[in-house]
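Students often ask what a holo structure prediction actually looks like on paper. The answer is less mysterious than it sounds. You provide the chain, you provide the ligand, and the output is a string of discrete structure tokens encoding the 3D arrangement of the protein together with D-MYO-inositol-1,4,5-triphosphate.
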Amino acid sequence: KHGVLTRKSHADMDGKRTPRGRRGWKKFYAVLKGMILYLQKDEYKPDADISEVDLKNAVRIHHALATRATDYSKRAHVLKLKTSDWRVFLLQAPGEEEMMSWIFRINLV
Ligand code: I3P
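The corresponding structure tokens follow.
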């Protein structure tokens, strides 16, 4: 599965709130492959190598949990992704259906 997702980092690996200066929203091209959600700078190219920056932004979603971000109301179609290493991301999808589809696919892994 792939598509545009806009990401906000809410908590880091230590479980603490992501500090100010790193809490901004950033748009990515998301690709879910196996147990990894790649958040890429550019559009998906099936045969292209993954750049170093894109690898750094990749999120392991094994044992992660995706839910609708019911406690976040500033933007619409936002899901909350909690990873097994205690990170928390807010991910905004382009629409409601897309958001539901990402939640379903992430939790299926
Ligand atoms: C953050 C940025 C985010 C904002 C966040 C700010 O600043 O303005 O858009 O979240 O507020 O800290 P920075 O880019 O310097 O990290 P919202 O869009 O949700 O308001 P927050 O600290 O209340 O999460």
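Residues 20-25, 74 surround D-MYO-inositol-1,4,5-triphosphate (CB under 6 Å).
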